[in-house]
Every structure is written in structure tokens, then in C-alpha cells.
Design brief:
Elements lengths: L3 E8 L3 H14 L4 E3 L3 E5 L3 E8 L2 E8 L2 H18 L1 H5 L16 E13 L2 E7 L4 H5 L3 E5 L11 E2 L5 E2 L11 E8 L4 E7 L5 H8 L5 E8 L8 E7 L3 H9 L6 E8 L14 E7 L7 H6 L9 E8 H12 L9 E7 L4
Parallel strand pairs: 14-15, 14-17, 15-16, 17-18
Antiparallel strand pairs: 1-5, 2-3, 3-4, 4-5, 6-7, 6-13, 7-12, 8-11, 8-13, 9-10, 11-12
């Protein structure tokens, strides 16, 4: 892939204050940033971001391997800046790697090929689109862009500064995040599994959508396969598509443990995995320990080549993050924790 670069200068009174806010934010998200007197540098997984302090300014440079990833990174950097220096962010202008075309480079319009039930609580979407290389190479997750029912789709556009402008009001789409379950970029196909939890617009839409309906897809994001020599992977049914895809693509010599929490035996799915991984299903209706309790009873992999990956409800994720950060032998580079949903009952 061709290397892509974009850069900008942010005019700001006290650069060090912004740097400290962003460094703390990255640390809270388990992203390691190299810090020096000059500024901050971090590897996002899809590109390198550099913030360099200057007199009354911050020079920003982003390097990535694709226009799509470059665009997502500069949108993400702008969002971080807006949270801590909104006025300065409004004047931010990017230079380099111009964007061509009617849509943001990380956005695709897709056609629904089919929607079918593959398990009592899972619906599988098959989508068709061109130019899916970026979606097969980096990032497990995408956002579906579902137009409002009964309205013609209005898709995102780019403004004169290259920023994504989303439709609002009655045209505002529903944009849930999901895992790519499988993808074949040569055939222009992508498959997404949707948990039918009984709540939300996406569940209703997925079960009723007709073939040839149009849907948007934006991404990819959310990190790549959690690969390491020794692992402990833990997740509930919302993380099941990500875990199944990870296990199917894991190297044969991966060793460790896998914990999967689901409601009932009916939620168990066939899976392929390296022989050195021990998979344990935790069945809520069967009285098994919950995911956090099971995690806290396990021997954790430590040292070089170790990784603990956890994805579930946000409060469960917060508990796991606190536990793992205080576990002996683990550093933040060994930990990946994500809250995939929020229990609002």
C-alpha cells in the first residue's frame, strides 16, 4: 500500500496542557504514547500520530498506509483536541493526501444480499460492496449506517476542510458498531452477525430488511486481531463474533485460555481454534460463574508475548480493567479491555 501523510498546525496558547490531557486520555484507553520534551507519539494500530510542541502551537503529523485509515485518524485526532481545546480545533486545517470522491474515504455504500437467522439469537447479514481492501486489513469493527425507515438515504459528505459532515434531523442515520464476522474483498462481500437482544432499532431492522436495500458502512476500527503467544481471551455474546473470527485466524502455536459467557446452551456456536487453547463456555442459566469472577480465578499470562483481552458490558469491562491493571506481571501493553454495550436497566 502507498504510504499516506497529512499534517496540520494547531494554534494554542499552552501546548503542554493539551499534551497532558491527550496523554492521560490515551493511557485510560490502554494506548501507550512515547513522551519526550518535544511532544507525544503513538501507534494507533492503523497509523502513527505525532504531536510536536512549538511556540504557541502544536505541529501534528499522521502517517498511515491508506487514505481511509488516514482520514479516520485525523478525524480522531480532531475529536481528541475538541474535547480539550474546542476553539483551537475549529481552525484546524489539514494539508497533504487530498480526498477525492463524493464520500469520506472510510465510508462505503453497500447492498444487502441477504439476512438470515444462524442461531436462536443471531442474525447474519451478507453485504456487497466494492473496494473492501481496507476493511480486510485493519480493524475488527465497523459502524453500520442505517437510513431512517421510510426515507431515501442521505449519506455523509466532506466539507471544504475535509471533515465528515453527517446528515441531521429527519435524515440522521442510526449508526451501531458491529464486528466484521468474515470478509472476502475479492468477491466484494462482508458478513456481520447481529445479536438479537430484543432491544434497539438494529435488531428490528436486521430481521426485516429486504435484499437490495442500501446501507452504509464506515470504518474499520477497534484494533486488529488480539494475537500473542500466550493469551487469555474473555467475552460475552456481544464479543462472540470478534472472538470467533480471532480464533479462526489465530496461529497454530497460540496457547492459553478462552472464556465465553452466554445466556444458554442454545447460544453456543461451533468454533475452530488452535489446539493449545482451552475454551470454556460460561452459561448464565446453568449457574456458571459470571465472566469477571471466572477471569479473576484464572492464572494470567505474563511477560513478553502475553496478552489478556476482555470485551463485555461497560461495567464488567471497568471491573476487569481495574483488576488487570493491578495484577502482578502485567503492564498496559499486555491488556486490551473494551466495553461493547451498556446495561441501562
Amino acid at each position: 500500500m502507498t504510504a499516506r501523510t497529512t499534517h496540520a498546525r494547531l494554534q494554542i496558547g499552552v501546548p503542554a496542557h493539551l499534551m497532558e490531557h491527550i496523554r492521560a486520555e490515551l493511557a485510560a484507553q490502554d494506548l501507550h504514547a512515547e513522551e519526550s520534551d518535544a511532544g507525544l507519539t503513538w501507534d494507533s494500530g492503523i497509523g502513527i500520530v505525532r504531536l510536536v510542541k512549538a511556540k504557541g502551537a502544536v505541529d501534528i503529523r499522521i502517517d498511515s498506509d491508506s487514505l481511509s485509515n488516514l482520514h479516520m485518524l485525523r478525524e480522531g485526532v480532531r475529536d481528541r483536541i475538541e474535547r480539550h481545546a474546542a476553539e483551537a480545533a475549529r481552525s484546524l486545517e489539514w494539508r497533504g493526501s487530498p480526498v477525492n470522491g463524493p464520500y469520506p474515504p472510510n465510508f462505503r455504500v453497500k447492498r444487502v444480499v441477504s439476512s438470515r437467522r444462524i442461531a436462536p439469537r443471531f442474525q447474519r447479514l451478507e453485504l456487497e460492496a466494492k473496494d473492501l481492501g481496507d476493511f480486510a486489513r485493519s480493524g475488527l469493527h465497523v459502524r453500520l449506517v442505517i437510513p431512517p425507515e421510510g426515507r431515501e438515504p442521505v449519506w455523509p459528505r466532506l466539507n471544504e476542510k475535509g471533515r465528515t459532515i453527517w446528515p441531521t434531523g429527519a435524515d440522521a442515520p442510526h449508526m451501531p458498531a458491529y464486528t466484521i464476522r468474515d470478509i472476502n474483498p475479492d468477491a466484494g462481500r462482508v458478513w456481520i452477525d447481529i445479536l438479537l437482544h430484543g432491544r434497539g432499532l438494529t435488531c428490528k431492522w436486521a430481521q426485516s430488511v429486504a435484499p437490495d436495500a442500501l446501507i452504509g458502512l464506515t470504518g474499520p476500527g477497534g484494533g486488529w486481531y488480539p494475537l500473542a503467544d500466550r493469551v487469555l481471551l474473555a467475552g460475552d455474546e456481544t464479543a462472540l463474533p470478534a472472538m470467533l473470527r480471532t480464533l479462526e485466524n489465530a496461529p497454530d502455536d497460540m496457547r492459553g485460555d478462552v472464556l465465553i459467557e452466554v445466556e444458554s446452551d442454545a447460544d453456543r456456536m461451533p468454533l475452530r481454534h488452535p489446539p493449545g487453547l482451552c475454551v470454556r463456555w460460561l452459561i448464565r442459566q446453568g449457574g456458571d460463574p459470571d465472566l469477571n469472577t471466572a477471569l479473576e480465578s484464572m492464572a494470567l499470562p505474563t511477560g513478553e508475548g502475553a496478552l489478556v483481552w476482555f470485551a463485555a458490558e461497560k461495567q464488567q469491562a471497568a471491573r476487569a480493567r481495574e483488576y488487570l491493571r493491578n495484577a502482578p506481571g502485567l503492564t498496559r501493553k499486555h491488556i486490551r479491555v473494551a466495553g461493547y454495550w451498556r446495561d441501562e436497566r
